[in-house]
Amino acid sequence: MTATQTETHCPYCSLQCGMRLAGRRTPEVSAWEEFPVNRGALCRKGWAAAGLYGGRERLTSPLVRDRETGEWSAVSWDDALDRVAAGIRAAQVAGGSDGVAVFGGGGLTNEKAYSLGKFARVALGTSQIDYNGRWCMSSAASAGIRAFGLDRGLPFPLADVEETDVLVLVGSNLVETMPPAARHLDRLRERGGKVVVIDPRRTPTADRADLHLQPVPGTDLALALGVLHLLVAAGAVDASYLAERTTGWEDVRDSVASWWPERVERVTGIDAHEVRALAEMLGAKSRVMVLTARGAEQHSTGTDTVLAWINVALARGMVGRRGAGYGCLTGQGNGQGGREHGQKADQLPGYRRIDDPAARAHVAGVWGVDPDALPGPGRSAYELLDALGTPDGPSALLVLGSNIVVSAPRATHVTSRLEALDLLVVCDVVMSETAALADVVLPVTQWAEETGTMTNLEGRVVLRQRAITPPSGVRTDLEVLAGLAERIGSQASFPTDPEEVFVELGRASAGGPADYSAITYDRIRDEQGVFWGGERLFAESFAHADGRARMHAVEHRGAAEQPCADYPIHLTTGRVLAQYQSGAQTRRVRSLPDDGPFVEMHPLLAGRLGVRQGDAVRVATRRGEMTAPAKVVPTIRPDTVFVPFHWVGANRLTNDALDPASRMPEFKVCAARLSPVAHA
Ligand code: SF4
């Protein structure tokens, strides 16, 4: 490393690849070979990350919108914050403390997520806070807490993938979504290990698999039940592990008794012999690892689906063994840390429950407030947005780190809820689709312009260090929260120095499930990231009081919306390599291709519709419609279409049916109708 370089991490996904930056205004990206997660490798988004800077679209002055004319005017920071504070007070007069809501993001640093939760509970006194991570991995989080008593996406380093004998990826396109991680698959296969991919599309990840199963979207749970049925029948479960380390096995075993391969085939569309092949592979090998991602989790049955796959891993006696077990491949940059520090509706820092009296007393002590003054649990993300501007809902909303208009399910409806607000305030770096609806837009720093910690998909806390000078006119999110807290008369302190916030976060999290109290910025620098809870979890015991994992008997229910005569096709959504999340950042990086959305479909379906490659196709669901060019490929199920979600459109279609435990919307499947635009 040269004296002018700064070691930091990518602005995007949960791998949080290490990289070096040089330059004062526009950073130059170079490899950080020593960082263990990616060893210098980056995907094209990472290499192009410097393109986030220097664009003309960067906001550098607070803006207010005239509701009559729609005109934007630049105002001073004092003016902007005064207006926001006045709007907050008006909403509180009209609706009480819960008249104001806060919406955060899984890309915010730990320090911002923590400060946002504190700002909501202490400065605003509102229970109405949640964040877009609810739409990312909340089903896996909810299942992990139920099964293991603790949720850490991967309870082991990602490199452990190389040590397993069979890796089962359920609903993950890891090769495209986090390419530097693909080397682990290659090394696994070089040493003779097998890779199984379960995905309705044959993705680049599936291309590297030894076995690719293409289920009907929304039926992963049934496949897990069928696999466990066959493992039981073959005597391939670990009886002593089940007796010593788990509870609930008998109920689980009985619940899979009727899941013969032929029944699995009827539900999932996967040939019975392929179901048997998977079970034989899992039963024969000594180390089995199951990793789920959004394909399995973003369902109204997401929690149960993950529990069903956890049951498979537990029944084989794998969880807690090195090179084996269960994990969730988190998606957003701070998908892990973002769910640990209090921006969730039901949670206080340290991954503590907000309805736990001991947790309330501890955190209130750190914050210097009366525990009884802290609000209770609020609405989950979609339910919160659905309530905006209604007689019982908040009339003011502050948004940090989220582009709701693109990323929310049933997005047209959610947009109408945002438009019904008396006050919408958005902190962002550019005029995102959500900022464009705001009354006040506050321009903030991003990524290389500021310091803060992120917790990657392995539970490794890493430090993003400020490398370049922000443009004049912008402030950090921490400064925005401090400025607002002061204006609305909060007595609590809101530090603006990230390291000071991190120290306070450590005290607030001390003794909780995600305890950061022993982690410091210096340790993170010296150790190239620090795992909270240790590198590997569950070797000796699980986090439930009795030390055992809890197995849960779960039932296949299927997707909330099934194809019918009017909407005969399954629609699923996902990502493409060059874009990230709502695209608010990556769509503005000129060196990344932005070809817009497409409708991926099988030639058989295209032939039935009379659609050729590139023809405009209208996709309609019960909630909305969009038009995009057809991408005709033989790699997707003929009964399913795929639309990427990085642009306005896909989420106008998606279903807002919620998982009862995690409150995850069913992004990954709904029923759709297709028509060629010329013939519509
Ligand atoms: Fe960034 Fe993720 Fe790509 Fe790594 S894999 S460079 S963290 S987007």
UniProtKB/TrEMBL annotation:
UniProt keyword annotation of 4Fe-4S present: yes
Record keywords: 4Fe-4S, Iron, Iron-sulfur, Metal-binding
Residue ranges constituting the 4Fe-4S Mo/W bis-MGD-type domain according to the UniProt record: 3-54
Pfam families per UniProt: Molybdop_Fe4S4, Molybdopterin, Molydop_binding
UniProt cross-references to InterPro entries, sorted A to Z: Asp_de-COase-like_dom_sf, MoPterin_dinucl-bd_dom, Mopterin_OxRdtase, Mopterin_OxRdtase_4Fe-4S_dom, Prok_molybdopt-oxidoreductase
PANTHER family: NADH-QUINONE OXIDOREDUCTASE SUBUNIT G (PTHR43105:SF10), RESPIRATORY NITRATE REDUCTASE (PTHR43105)
UniProt protein name: Molybdopterin oxidoreductase family protein
Organism: Nocardioides cavernae
